[in-house]
Prior knowledge:
The complex is a heterodimer. By secondary structure, chain A is an alpha/beta fold. Chain A has helices spanning 33-43, 57-72, 96-103, 121-134, 232-253, 271-280, 292-295, 302-317; strands spanning 2-6, 9-19, 22-24, 47-49, 81-86, 111-116, 140-148, 166-175, 182-188, 196-197, 215-216, 222-223, 229-230, 263-266, 319-328, 332-341, 349-351.
Amino acid sequence: MAFAFLNNVAxxxxxACVPRHIEENxxxxxxxxxxxxxxIAQTGIERKHTVEQGTTVVDLCAHAFExxxxxxxxxxxxxxxxxxxxxxxxxxxxxxxNVLHGILNLPETCLCFDIRQGCPGWIIxxxxxxxxxxxxxxxxxxxxxxxxxxxxxxxxxxxxxPLFGDAGTATALEYDTEASPIELEHGSRGKxxxxxxxxxxxxxxxxxxxxxxxxxxxxxxxxRAIDSHMKGxxxxxxxxxxxxxxxxxxxxxxxxxxxxxxxFIFHQANQYLNExxxxxxxxxxxxxxxxxxxxxxxxxATIPLTIVSQCRERYSTDTINTIAxxxxxxxxxxxxxxxxHHIVCPEVIFYDSx
Amino acid sequence: xxxxxxxxxxxxxxxxxDASIFTPQTKFHDxxxxxSLIGLSVIGMVDEEYDVALKGNDVKGSVTIEDLYNIVKSRx
Lengths: 354, 76
């Protein structure tokens, strides 16, 4: 079990940006009215904000960054590192964080790198960004987390299409000797990597013309070899087995009482699964906010997006004790415990495509 | 672990299919209402009631409800 704690790292602010364009699940052409009614009832997802052609997570994260920097009144010259967590880049090379570094006019003294991750990504990013800050070598670090997942999925995939939306977020970390420690737990199950899988388009299977053709698999799902496809039942089973255990072991390891936690922020997979996880941990529903109804599953953006869209007033005005937990692609999972004081937490902003 | 009780729990995952038609021999993939969403409900039910983690292939590979019962029983 990988546990970690990070001293002297304060979360100063969180922002989120989604495309203005909305895709209503009730209007999806791939479902009959009866089918979609059931899908919405079980997943809890009614609509998603989705990117229009030409927009990627880089655009969404750039806007989230600018808004956060403005609200924090931080000088961009003071940013020591920029990390982007996302499932895919704008280009095969270079990393998107370097592209963003140019767009955002960051100083040449800034370290940039990408972490290629999806759903569990914010927890992993917090670990890595916090590890830079705790050394005091990097005083201010911006962690960008997001996905334009709709660009990676088949529009005909009945399992993925109603679930995934797009979003970009920014989380600001700063060195602070008064900060409460951030405590984390991580895990991976690499043998199950093909559970959420896009086979073609990387170096192992470079794209061939046939990879662009839609095929229907044994489970009656239609997608191309370049599309990210998930085996729904296996992901569900994995999450049910690992997420509650991760939260429980974090609480045991660091002696965290259930009563001391104000919010448990879970990765927004689907309501049916998330409610199972909540009930297994016997957490009161008032402590578990959801953003999935209007945003769906936005990959590594779901935890910051849920904080910003559902609880921004309390995070802005109070000291909040949080446990966050995410799970998915890898397969991998992680949980984090952190205490924030009056963070900058502006309203979700909308991206208008040009 | 009781087979009749398992069949009953299995039947409870369906909204429109009449509970009385479910028997240990029911070939559940052939039911009109069967879907991957109900597959998730079944995995959730087995986790909750029996504390057993079923995988997708356990559900896909089972023909009858009793087949699935036998997998769950072997892992308790």
